[in-house]
What we know:
The chain has 28 helices and five strands. It has a domain at 348-547. The protein is mostly helical. The strands form two sheets. The protein has a three-stranded antiparallel beta sheet with strand order 2-1-3, with helices on both faces. Strands 4-5 form a two-stranded antiparallel sheet.
Amino acid sequence: MGLALCAVLSLSSSVPLGLYAQSSNKPSRAASQSETPKLKPEQERGLRLLKTAETESAGLQPKMRAFLLWRASYAYTKVNPKHAEKLSRDAFVATQGIEDAPENDSCGAPGGSGDIKSWIQQSVLYDMVHKDRLPQVEKLLPQATPSVRNQITAELVRYYESKKDLTHAEALLSTLADSDSYPFGIAASLVTALGAEHSADRISIFNQALNNFEQHASETSFGNDIGNFVEQTWNDVPSGLALEAIEKVLDAAKEGNSHSHYSMSSANGSVVLNSEYALRLFQLSPILQELDKDKADALLREQTDVADQLKSHPRGMQSLQSENTSFSYGVTDSGSGIGDAAAKQQIEAQMQERVEAVLHQADTDPTGALAKALTLPVHGTSESSSPRAHALLGIARKTAAKKTSVSKSALDDFSTIQDQLTPQEMTGIDELPELYLNVGDTDGAKKALDILVKAAAKIYERDTDPDDPNKAFKGSWPSTDLWRKAIQQGAKLSPMLPEEIIAGLQDADISSFEKVVFAAALVGGSLTDTSILVADCRKNGASFRVSSSR
């Protein structure tokens, strides 16, 4: 894959040359000789901390070294962009020393959700693509893991589409024709961008996507997959081709005979479906009604549960789209347990629907929304989410500017239940100090910061549980992430607060990383340009999420 991509880049070098020139424009002589702005004392201190962290990184294990250099690169973005670029490249090189986990490792297998090596490589190359550093991408990409080569190639397709270089985008997409992670969403966008005048190219990409699905149907995951691709592009190709695709997707789902159950919820309602076939039919029936109504009606007569769901949501998944649409799925070992699992998921979906309704009401009736939030249970059926906490913090966020009194009340109500929350439920409260600052309550923000720090310590105890420790990379532990956010929030209040937090850390690796977080806050650099992988890997399974920086 890497050789194929390099060939495309080399053969098409006439196209990116203009982009290279765009990113390599040097400042005028006068500008380059202008006086460097004097750094503030706190920025100088931050730089000293960063340099110390860089020096100490040489003695760290490859994973932590690569991770620390990668995060430090963002801290330098404003005060020393060239050094930021160097550290970014150094981080990529450092990943080469990370040994690949076994293929059966549910947490860190190559290409898997917990593969920190690929995570760092992808982030470094992604930034290079969007900063027009394509020569660096071309140089480093062959050294990346296979999954990263696929992902960055897909991102290059998106990039060239944004530059209106559709020919180059289509050529790169063709190198992924046989990939087991074909970028269906990006392909759909390219089909639309090509326009009706390029009908042959549209059909070619549509067939490419359909052929890839037939090769890797069992590996398809819901989201930017073949179903969404068909939803977005069926009007751009001949109806016969669109019908063929729908039939193949439905047939593959039926043959799979999965024991999966799916739920979707938003402010517009919720649905729970008990098989992959039911989900696909729910998704594609609205299109099939347009193309072949008789066939759509016949299929729905066989699947009355889907037909009933479509009565409330006639546009299928599109009917559920809103600002906060959630999607979840589960798999049982056999069909015998699917009823109980689906029932639980139905309860979760209904609870999520209630929370979303409260947040929607907060836009027009904040006082009434707050009253309803207090009727929600503290603990939901999911171990990682508290319905009442989610609703209270959402109301506080929505009303901070227009209805400060309601926002403050929501925060005070949250404070009465924070001691009841489990460590998993506490992972979602990282914005608490900021919310207090939004309503002008500095003392409340300091107390909220203390809540975060104590929560992180409790989560750390769980991460280091001797009977069932978190086997994920330490830089992606939930406790590490919450301490990071506490330090970022504390820096807005006083430099003394992050110092106290870091001084209380007993884990040397985590302390090294959090020093970089603090240094970034001091120098005014950014650790918000990318997201962090948060992983929790235990004996009975693994969970992953993406944590945004604030």
